[in-house]
Design goal:
Largest sheet: 8 strands, mixed
Number of helices: 8
Structural class: alpha+beta
Oligomer: single chain
Distance between the termini: 75 Å
Shape: globular
Mean pLDDT: 90
Length: 219
């Protein structure tokens, strides 16, 4: 009997971070933990329960990452027609293949989401606005052997249309960021996402001391 074609709403059984690292260990391309899972990894404990787990890869490396998956796992991509998914190999070549969902075929469940981002050989680039860049060694950090997206970068991704749960993530992470990371995050919001609700405390004349760029350095 043929298994039904999965949909984005099909069941999830997300891998643990360590299991993701093991699954992708053979990959010959750069990948990194992203989204909420990256924030949890950086903080050292889960902020909240999460329905899935994400990694990212430069768009040009996506096919190579998928090709390195072991037997028993399949990759599915948007067909471009509503929520329909097709096997990654059958997806339109000119489409923005994201996100790609990885399925444990034996468990009939999604286990990993792969996001395609932008980058150059020396720097990560924000897909929504290529003016925002970071050297790779700042954009992706090694946390106990797991390449992990820097927390300030993950917050910028979440800032465009933050949900209530995204604000929970921000409030858990922001106090622990280094001054350089806070400056990057606040500058990115002002330049790239000035209308985000998160930018209010940064640009508000009623709370100027909260913005890193408007603090007077001690003499």
């Amino acid at each position: 009997m043929t298994s039904p074609v999965p949909t984005p709403a099909s069941a999830w059984a997300p891998l643990t971070t360590d299991a993701v690292a093991e699954l992708l260990a053979p990959a010959s391309v750069r990948w990194w933990l992203s989204g909420g899972a990256a924030l949890d990894r950086w903080l050292g404990h889960p902020i909240r329960e999460r329905a899935n787990i994400d990694v990212s890869v430069v768009a040009g490396d996506l096919a190579a990452l998928v090709a390195g998956l072991p037997d028993g796992y399949s990759a599915w991509a948007p067909s471009g027609d509503d929520d329909e998914l097709v096997p990654f190999a059958d997806a339109p070549q000119d489409a923005d293949l994201q996100p790609v969902l990885i399925r444990d075929d034996a468990e009939n469940a999604w286990v990993l989401q792969v996001n395609a981002e932008d980058g150059a050989p020396r720097a990560w680039m924000y897909k929504r606005d290529p003016r925002l860049t970071l050297p790779w060694d700042r954009a992706v950090i090694d946390l106990d052997g797991v390449p992990t997206g820097a927390p300030e970068v993950q917050l910028v991704w979440k800032a465009l249309r933050p949900r209530e749960e995204d604000t929970v993530d921000k409030d858990a992470v922001l106090p622990g960021l280094s001054p350089d990371a806070v400056q990057f995050y606040e500058t990115a919001l002002l330049r790239i996402h000035p209308h985000s609700t998160w930018s209010i405390h940064i640009r508000s004349p009623f709370a100027p001391a909260k913005a890193s760029w408007n603090r007077t350095k001690p003499s």
